[in-house]
Amino acid sequence: MDMEGVLAIIFIFGGGSLFLLALSPVGRALAERIRRQGGAALPEDVRAELDALRSELSGEVQQLRVEVSELSERMDFAERLLAKNRDAQQIGPGQ
Which of 54, 60, 65, 52 minimizes the C-alpha distance to 23? Predict the structure, then answer.
């Protein structure tokens, strides 16, 4: 396996793990703690801008979820094709 393949696997699974951590109760609690510590000192215009960014990012996060799901389906398909090819080679032609 070449270095690019290894980096791609690390990126996919590492990014997926961080994404799932962000959705977990631990990630939510950490985000809430950060919000409480910094939220009281923010001016109203900055708070409004942050709220606008949050709503914009929620759409982007949804799009990323769709893309991750599609990539997962493609990876499953590729794994099935590779396994099918490997099984056919083990059996041999005409057997």
Answer: 65
